[in-house]
Amino acid sequence: MKKSVYVFALLSVLSFCCFVVPSEWQLFLKEFVKHPHEIGSVVPSSPYTCRELTRYVCNRDSVVTTTPYHILEAGAGTGVVTRQILQNLRPGDVYDIVESDSELAAKLTSMVESEEYSAKGSARVRVYACGFEKFRDLYNIQKHSYNVVITTLPFNAFPLLLVQGCLLAIRDSLAPGGHWSYIEYRWLPDIKTTFTWGASCDCLKLVKKEVQDFCATAIEKKKVFVLRNVPPTYVYHLKFSN
Ligand SMILES: C[S@@+](CC[C@H](N)C(=O)[O-])C[C@H]1O[C@@H](n2cnc3c(N)ncnc32)[C@H](O)[C@@H]1O
Asked: What is the CATH number of the domain that holds 78?
C-alpha cells in the first residue's frame, strides 16, 4: 500500500514536470542533474534578472554612441539572457556566446541560427562550445576587445582554480571602460559556508575572497537586488579602466 503511494507521488511529480514545467526548464533541470557543479542552479534566470543583467546592451539610447558593441556572454545555459541580447543587437555589433555544456551549446546555436534572429541583420553572432577560462586562447580572440561581458557562471560551485581562470578571462576580455555584469544568489554563499565543513568550506571562503579582491579593482560598482528570481539574486555591474 505504502509503496503504491510513493509510486503515485513520483508519477505525479514527473507528469507535472512533463506537462506544466516549460521545456526550457526541463532541459535546464536535466543538465543540472547531470552536472550540478557546472550548472549551479535548478531553474534559469527570471526575465527580471535577464533585463537587469543586460542593461548595458539594451539601454544604449541613454548612452550617446552609435559605435557598435562587442558583447561577450559566458554560461549562457538555455539562452534566457541570450534571447534578450539578440533582441537588442544593432548593426555592426559582435556578440560571442560561450557555453561549456555541449547539449546546451547546440541549443544555443540553433537559436541564433533560427529565422527569428538570423534575420536581425548585420550583427555577427557566434557560439563557442568550451570552457570560458580557455575560450580566448582556443579561438585566438584579441585581448581587451569587449565593451560588455555578462556572466552567470556559478562561482560558488566552482573550484578555486576555475574561478581564478574565469576572472582572468574577464579581465583579459574587457576593453578599457568596459562593463562586467554578473549574478550572485542572495543567501546561497552564506548558507553554503554555514553548512559545509573542512576543505569545502575553506574553498568557498577562498572563492568569495578571490571574487571580492577582483571586484575591488573596479572603478565603478553598482549592486541591484532582484527579488523576482529563484532564488532571489543580486546583479552586480562593474566598470574597469584596465
Ligand atoms: C547558472 S547557469 C546560467 C544559465 C543562464 N545564463 C541563466 O541565467 O539562466 C550557468 C551556466 O554556465 C555554464 N558553465 C559552467 N561552467 C562553465 C565554464 N567554465 N565555461 C562556460 N560555461 C560554463 C553551465 O553549463 C550553465 O549553463
From this structure: 3.40.50.150
Instruction: Tell me the whole-structure pTM to 2 decimals.
Output: 0.86
Question: Exposure string (b/e) for 81-99, b if CB count within 10 Å is 16 or more?
Answer: bbbbbbebbeeebbbbbbb
Ligand 1, atom nearest to 183 Cα: 8
Cell of residue 76, nine digits = 549562457
Q: Is 101 in the pocket of ligand 1 (CB under 6 A)?
A: yes
Closest ligand 1 atom to the C-alpha of 131? 20
Range of the domain at 37: 22-239
Residue from 99, 109, 130 whose mutation best tests the ligand 1 pocket (most atoms within 8 A of CB): 99
79: Cβ below 6 Å to ligand 1? Answer: no
pLDDT at 1: 53
96 C-beta closer than 6 A to ligand 1: no
**Structural domains counted in the chain:** 1
In a domain, 13, yes or no: no
Task: Please check whether residue 191 lies inside any domain of the structure.
Answer: yes
Residue 145 lies in a domain: yes
The whole-angstrom separation of Cα 157 and Cα 90 is 35
**Ligand 1 pocket residue status of 178, Cβ below 6 Å:** no
Q: What per-residue confidence (pLDDT) applies to 102?
A: 94
